[in-house]
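Running this now, will post back.
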Amino acid sequence: MRTAAIVPAAGRGERLGPGGPKALRLLGGVPLLVHAVRALVQARSVDVVVVAAPPGDVVAVRGLLDDYDLPKEVEVVAGGETRQESVRLALVSLSEDVDVVLVHDAARPLVPPELVDAVAQAVRAGAQAVVPALPLSDTVKQVDENGNVVTTLDRSTLRAAQTPQGFRRSALERSYVAADGAIATDDAGLAELAGVAVTTIRGSAEALKVTHPLDLQFAEALLARRRGDRAR
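Update: finished.
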């Protein structure tokens, strides 16, 4: 049985500012998508990567990925209007021999391959759904629609979820069937709605998400540090 990693990459990423799809923005001269796919194929646990591209750009994304030396199987399928729909379309495209599915955001281009392997291993060890997560360092306030503070949440019980999120294929498929129009901001959220037990493992600060222009600057600094370390 094999492990597949799905990368939904059909979104525009408008919070990053004007330009093309966020997944194709450059980081160190290389598209975010390519960085993310590279990290996945470098993980020992991943057998195949499936990229859900904008429907009109499947051929272009396929050609882009072919320009880079990617040592494992990488497929490109047409994504949907939403992240959730893109994952669903990629999920139904998987071959029958895939039993573990990872879902990873292209907006987390510098995720360490070791974290990818840790998530997959946790699923292999028996978990139905696994989320890498980090404790919060900021105090978190719950507010009402007018911005008034309702309460201060206990941050010791809160975690910031990252990707890749890992699932038994059957659990993820069940979650998408049970969704029935429900919307969640991540796949673990759909699993929760379907009654699937979700567990967490320690995430990584390097799996930062590129959402705003400043995030891209942080990612550039991290990439430069990595390249400097390799040059020594």
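The domain at 2-231 is CATH 3.90.550.10 (Spore Coat Polysaccharide Biosynthesis Protein SpsA; Chain A). More later if anyone needs it.
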